[in-house]
Request: fold
Amino acid sequence: MSEKFLKSGKVKDIYEINDNLLKFKFSNRISVFDQIIPSEITVKGEVLCRIAKFWFDRIEKKGICKTQYVSDGKSKTKSDEMLVKKTEVIPLEFIVRHYNAGSYYKRHKGTYGEKFSEPIFEITTKFEKYDRLLTEEEALEISKLKKIDLENIKEIILKIDDVIKNQAGKRNLIHVDGKKEFGILDGEILLIDTFGTPDEDRFWDAEEYKKGNFVELSKEFVRQYYENLFYVCPKCGEKFSYRDFLYVQREKKLSEPLIPPLSDEMIRKVGELYGGMYERITGKKF
Reply:
């Protein structure tokens, strides 16, 4: 299969197969706060690819929406590679939150971990250096979508999240929130990129949740590591969490501190978490 390298993202390397097809090569890179960590997680690329394929197969079988995914049968691509159709990418990211957690909790407070009576939709930019929250009007202006398109996307996401919630529930997991992306091909809106993985979505252990505990089974585990990793400002001598210092510098448009590598112990724990989540989500051995 001839291919041409196009670009590297935070997680994936993208290759052109022909005028209609691309190949995603999932790396072992990991990023938080829009920064790539200088550490690699051995199994991560394969885990993300296999979980993404699992969800795409389910969504297509249920006829929820058309997708970018191209099923290649068995063993035609490696376990960390995926064939996808070329699309015009809609420059938005769609986040749906079912529980009060993450950045939503940081912005709005309330009761951490509380289930919302109705899902909360948020939209952010995709191609800016840092993700930026948008109003619906801003999203329509940036994307050139019609309001009816946005409503259709919301409806699709809710149907997808029902599938994720039901599967997660069988596996003693709670699906807390997640991100979806869409593209356009031949005038139709398609689900693209990946979703339902520990990178894009947040999961909690259901039994621990009943006890009032929040066991993070996603990349949030890594975010929390950097929120509790303290950094001494070289100029003022004050002590900040790495995450807080990064965002202070970013807000002031000053140079950002380099993100430190993960400890060896964290690399091992994150690898175990990702491999374990493949098994918990899919019910299959990794």
